[in-house]
Write a structure and sequence with these properties.
By secondary structure, this protein is α/β, with parallel strands linked by helices. The chain folds into 3 domains: 44 residues, lambda repressor-like DNA-binding domains (434 Repressor (Amino-terminal Domain), Orthogonal Bundle), CATH 1.10.260; 134 residues, Response regulator (Rossmann fold, 3-Layer(aba) Sandwich), CATH 3.40.50.2300; 138 residues, 3-Layer(aba) Sandwich (Rossmann fold), CATH 3.40.50.2300. The chain has 12 helices and 12 strands. The strands form 2 sheets. The chain has a 6-stranded parallel β-sheet, with helices on both faces. Strands 7-6-8-9-10-12 form a 6-stranded mixed β-sheet, with helices on both faces. The chain is elongated and about 90 Å long.
Length: 341
């Protein structure tokens, strides 16, 4: 006769103790002695007992699972963000459930719904590029579901945020180009309803004004900042009567796309057009010339986001004040922007 799945009753019968004692021992209850806990754990291993996590979650009210919503996982920035989240979560006994919005609002809404159905203890999210209605996140706040927004954020009550200082990163990138002798600097900007791109545009503009250079609307080019967008924007710049002598791109991908087109059209980088990107993707060191970029400390951002979420989880049911964590960016200067040797 085939033996069925082992239960706490089987363990209790073997050890001649009550099922409730077995349950408490497996849950590391402080009222159960260390000796009894060890006996129960050894017998559980011998009988190949599988802990019922769902039942335990229903009893405790916690699944020890963190939900994560990201625009994509195929970029180094977001992959590193996940690594930072997992490092903290796993050290605290939590698992991580990852979903992707693919930068689409409807998918992001579905991601939130799916994670809630999975009874995650809280959610860490970076907002999709196409999201303009934040009701699905606002509802989390109303339901007292712990929420942390990172990188791409918006103002949501009860949500903590973790960001890089996008304004400062953009200011320093633009300032560097000015100090290299550039005077006509184009900016590849992202969707302005997303704070990160709004602040990067502000940093660019203020750096120009601080150095007495005019802010020119025609040199601000909006796009989705993909590689193909960078190619198209570079073609647009080549059609202008006067080519800019520098580009500050709000993403490395668009910067790389522009670099490819400019080189294909015989433009020397950085001698004729200096270029700085944003994110410090790994490929920045391998393109020719190597691409200057603003480092976003993505692993550290993920770690801060996980700590902030777990703090909310632990304070659930009590008064909790959300807070904003701002990390300091670092400008990594490489050959693509070094006109002054």
């Amino acid at each position: 006769m085939t033996r069925g799945k082992t239960t706490i009753y089987d363990i209790a019968a073997e050890l001649q103790i009550t099922p409730s004692t077995v349950s408490r021992a497996l849950s590391d209850h402080p009222r159960i002695s260390t000796k009894t806990k060890e006996r129960v754990r050894r017998m559980a291993e011998q009988l190949n007992y599988q802990h019922n996590g769902i039942a335990a979650a229903l009893r405790s009210g916690h699944t020890h699972i963190i939900g994560v919503i990201l625009p994509t996982t195929d970029r180094s920035f977001f992959a590193s963000l996940i690594r930072g989240i997992e490092q903290v979560a796993q050290a605290e006994g939590y698992n991580v459930m990852i979903t992707q919005s693919h930068d689409q609002e409807d998918i992001e809404v579905s991601n939130v719904s799916a994670l809630l159905k999975s009874q995650v203890d809280g959610i860490i999210a970076s907002i999709a590029r196409d999201t303009t209605d934040f009701t699905h996140y606002q509802e989390l706040g109303k339901k007292k579901i712990p929420l942390v927004l990172c990188d791409r954020v918006t103002e949501i009550s009860q949500a903590s945020t973790v960001v890089i200082d996008d304004y400062l990163g953009a200011y320093r990138a633009t300032e560097h180009l000015i100090q290299q002798g550039c005077r006509r600097i184009a900016h590849f900007a992202g969707k302005q309803h997303l704070n990160i791109y709004k602040y990067r545009l502000c940093g660019y503009r203020d750096a120009l004004e601080a150095y007495g250079l005019a802010f020119q609307e025609e040199l601000v080019l909006l796009s989705n900042l993909q590689f193909e967008d960078g190619q198209q924007l570079a073609q647009e710049l080549l059609r202008k009567p006067e080519l800019p002598d520098a580009i500050f791109a709000a993403s490395d991908y668009s910067a790389m796309g522009a670099m490819q087109v400019l080189k294909a059209n015989g433009k020397r980088i950085p001698e004729e057009v200096a270029i700085v990107g944003f994110a410090n993707e790994p490929f920045c060191s391998f393109v020719e010339p190597a691409l200057s970029s603003v480092n976003q400390s993505s692993v550290e951002m993920g770690q801060f986001a996980a700590r902030a979420l777990l703090k909310q989880v632990r304070h659930q049911g009590t008064s909790y004040q959300p807070h904003k964590t701002v990390l300091t960016p670092e400008l990594i200067i490489r050959a693509s922007s070094q006109k002054q040797k």
